[in-house]
């Protein structure tokens, strides 16, 4: 009976996935397929400022990555859609065709490169420890026996898991759906520190004026890339070519100035 039920469920899952696929047909160039669909769908965690997040006043999804992607879509001759996704299931969202790419402070790793087709890095980043200013925590070793907050499925989690001595020293780890929730918990003392992207941490501290600081000892250094389906390298290359064009004509610098106050892009550098 379990085998029969399992087979039925598997079949249902297959047809459900098949029915929502919007990937290129066999032999079809993925760039042509995108233009035929007419809409470039970007998958993101919509609570990741300043790269992609909801504006409190308009509820519109805005951010650095959003502005880059909108202009890239325009130059490719298609419309643009920002699609919030479950970050834990981001690769499945991509493979089932619900989105065309993952573009939202998406860290390039060797493991991810095996499954996805990545652009080169467009921004550099570090995984850092954010603490309350009065916590007394100044180094990674000061976290011994304390409670750490991490966004589930994030590169922060990868960075912690990759630092065995640090991970072993922490007393307890709490996983959150997004960094905003993690920082709110830090604010009320639910955790002693949050590991997160320096790009996001520095922006959030500047915007909220909360008494947080970033310690000077990063857990890892990394680069942000745009992830496409493994068999859609042509689409990846087309988007990257447009971004290089945007960097050359000053568009990327202008968008970076808008969100960061300076040009921190590494495209064409």
From TrEMBL:
SMART domains: PBPb (SM00062), PBPe (SM00079). Residues 39-263 form the Solute-binding protein family 3/N-terminal domain. GO terms for cellular component: cell envelope; membrane. This is Amino acid ABC transporter substrate-binding protein, PAAT family. It comes from Treponema saccharophilum DSM 2985. The keyword Signal applies. Pfam families: SBP_bac_3 (PF00497). It is found in: Cell envelope. Keywords: Signal. InterPro entries: Iontro_rcpt_C, SBP_3_CS, Solute-binding_3/MltF_N. The keyword Signal applies.
